[in-house]
Description:
Structural class: alpha+beta
Radius of gyration: 23 Å
Distance between the termini: 13 Å
Strand order of the largest sheet: 3-23-22-19-18
Protein name: Circularly permuted type 2 ATP-grasp protein
Organism: Acidisoma cellulosilyticum
Pfam families: CP_ATPgrasp_2 (PF14403)
Helix content: 25-40%
CATH topology of the domain at 226-319: Rossmann fold
CATH architecture of the domain at 226-319: 3-Layer(aba) Sandwich
Domain Circularly permuted ATP-grasp type: 88-463
Mean pLDDT: 91
Strand content: 15-25%
Largest sheet: 5 strands, mixed
Amino acid sequence: MNAEVVKIPEDLFLDCEPGPYVSELATDRPGDNGAAQIVRDRLSAIGLDGLRARAKAAENDLMSLGVTFTVYSDATAIDRILPFDCIPRIITAAEWRKLETGVQQRVAAINAFLHDIYHDRKILRDGIVPAELVLGNANYRPEMENFPVRFGTYVHICGIDIIRDQFGDFRVLEDNARTPSGVSYVVENRHLMRRAFPDLLAGMSLMPVDDYGRRLREALTEIAPEGVDDPQVVLLSPGIYNSAYFEHVFLAREMGVPLVEGPDLVVEDDRVFMKTTAGLRAVHSIYRRLGDDFLDPTVFRPESLLGVPGLIRAWRKGNVALANAVGTGVADDKAVYAYMPRIIKYYLDQDPILANVETNICREAEGLAYTLDNLDQLVTKPVGESGGYGITIGPRATREELEASRAALIANPSNWISQPVIGLSVCPTLTDDGIRQRHLDLRPFAVTGRSTWVLPGGLSRVALKAGSLIVNSSQGGGSKDTWVLAEESRR
Length: 491
C-alpha cells in the first residue's frame, strides 16, 4: 500500500474523542510532526473490517509462535496469548528524552540505595528512610551485607511502571527491581506490526527496539568476574511452567546464550559449571529469572528443586555474577517506593525528573488514618503483591469490597499503601464496538552494567475493559506497539 493516503473512506475515530483524559494518539502534540494524523489516516484507509481481519491473523501468529504467558489462577489453561492491539502508542522524541533520563536517574538512585543499606546504612542512620522498613522487609537479605558487586550495580534489569496523569505529566507508579518481565512483547510487537501492518509503518522514522538482546548480553559480559576473556553467559529459568517461560526462551535466543534450568548447573570447587554433552563447561554470568528464595537450597529454601546448591557461595567467592543481585526486592517494595523522591535527593542531590504518584504509607499512623477516612476515594495496594492482585479501587468498589479492604488495613496496616485515583491517559484501541479509548501505562526497561541504557519505548499495557484502570496481563490487559519518534518523523 502506498504510504501516502489520498482518500479516507471512513473516519474510524469519530467515537473516540473528545474525552476527559490525555490521548496518546492526539494529533496536536508538540513534536508529533504529523505522525498521529498519518496513523489515523492509514487506519481509516484500511477500514474496520480490514483491521479486524488483520488483528485476528496477528493473534493467530502470536499463538503459532508461542508468544504466550501463564495465569496461575486460571485452572482451565496453561498458555494464553497477551492480547495485542494493532493501534500503536506514539511517544515524541522530546517526551522520550525526559522518560529516558528519568529512568536512568531512578536506576542510579536504586543502586546507590541498595549498596548503602547492605554496607554503611547511612540513609538509615540519617533517618531519611525508616530502618525498620528496610531491615524488617521480607526481601532484605542479610547474605548481601558487606558483599560488593561489580560497578555497584545490583539491579541490572529494571522495569519502571509509568503513567501519564490527567494533566499530561509522566509519573512513576511502581519500580520493578527483581525479575521484571514483558520486554519480549516490546520486540515481538514491533515484529508483528512489520508483518501485519507494513503499510502503517511505511516511511515512519522510529527508534529501533531490536537491540535489546545485544545490550543485555553486553551488560552481563561486563559484570562477569575479572580476568575472563570470553565469559559464558546463561539464562537460568524455573522451567516451562513459569508464567514468563516464553520470554526466557526469547531472551536466550536474542542474546545467543544457553537457556538452562537448575539441574543443568553444578557447583564444584566454588565454581559454576554447565552440563553439556562434551562435559562440564564453566559459567561466568547468570541472568536468573527465578526468585531469591529458590536460587540456592543450601542458603534459602532447602526444599527448592529449581536452584543450584552452592550458587551463592560461588557468587560470594567472585567466581560467577548474578543479575539481578540477591536482595533487590527491598528497592521495589511499594512502601519504600514512597521514599524514592527522598532517596534520589539523598544520593544524587537532584530532584526527581519523574515524580511519584502521591502515596500514603499505612504503616504510619497518619497515612492509615487518612486512608481509612477516604477509603472510597483511594486506591489501596498490598506492598508485596504484583500483577494487579489485591488492589481495591475505592470509587468503583462495592460496599462489601470496601469493608473487606478496611478490615485488611486494620489487621495489618504495614502491608498496605494508598494512592489517589489517577486519570490514566488513553489511546484509541480496537474493540468489538469499534475504535474506543482505553487506559494504558508504560514500562520502559533499563539495562545496567557499567552504565545504563534504556530500551526506546517500552511495554505499553492497555486495559481492554471499558473504564478499567488495571492494565496487568493477569487481569485481562493487553499490549500495544510503542513508537518512539526519531527527531524527525516523515511521511
